[in-house]
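User: Hi! I'm working on a homework problem where we have to compare a predicted structure to a textbook description. Could you give me the structure for the chain below?
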Amino acid sequence: MERISVTKLASRINTEADAYGYMESLRWPDGPICPHCGNKRAYFLKPANGRSRATRTGSLSERRVWKCAKCRRQFSVTTGTIFHGSKVSLRVWLMVFFEMCSNKNGLAAREVERKYEVSPKTAWFITHRIREAMRNKAPDALVGTIVADETFIGGNPQKMNRKTRLRWEGWDQEPKRLAPGTGHPNQKSAKTPVFSLIDAETGEIRSRVVTDVTANTLRKVMTEQVNMAASTVHTDAGRWYNDVGRQFIAHHTVDHDAGRYFDYGTGASTNKAENYFSQLKRSIDGTHHSISRRHLQRYLWEFDYRYSTHRISDTERTVRLMGQVDGRLTYKRVKGLG
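Assistant: Happy to help. Predicted structure tokens:
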């Protein structure tokens, strides 16, 4: 597999036709596949001038069009994908796509706006559509040794003014002030709780925005994501894990309050989750600065994807994601997430 880099990609896709051809090589290494009927026999509709064709509006397009030999419908490599219907150049799409796969700290919409000369709204929509592709849409249950931990994303509520805190939470009264070092996950806070599960062997991670950190909420997420009857779980000493821990083969804990972060007897540790949370928070602070609770889950899909594939190269990660781009995402649906 040819190694992809920013310079190689930029030199390879000088025109829109080049971008379509390159994307076809990534999505269809064995030839075109009709998105309408799944047939693998199709023929290329070569433009009359050999390069571009007129659209219904009279403008010229270098979009490479194919026609299925079975259903006779026309399609391109972007049909039925997150790229479908976009007026943005496919060259821009591919550059942003590769950067989001390779940038450890993510890519801010404002950065896309500046670098690729698109509007803020367009840049924001592009990045969210790519995050949609990064979502694990049909996951198998995790099994084996599972690390479970929670964290909180957002600004310090004690540094917000009262009006901001009330608007953030939508409460009828002011949130409680937490004394330093006495924060409790179940106390009211302007921060958003996030719960993560990591397969200690494969490194796959699944993070979810949750309403609170309670036994019932965490049990629901674990039931959906983990084969508990065939797995061992490692957590901290939070009492909300005690009940659900009994449904696993074994439940090993480390007491952070006692200064213990690794149990040499059982091998229990939540360090994998702590490392992920550290990278996540530093990236949010340094790259995105602020993420709304409504859209936080999409950012978690992005960081989950890069973390779960950290053992493979940027090229392999990009090619793998190109196989997950099926499914359209409308602007209205993105705005309505939450």
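For your comparison, note the following. Residues 228 and 247 are 6 Å apart (CA to CA). The chain is about 35% helix and 15% strand. Good luck with the assignment!
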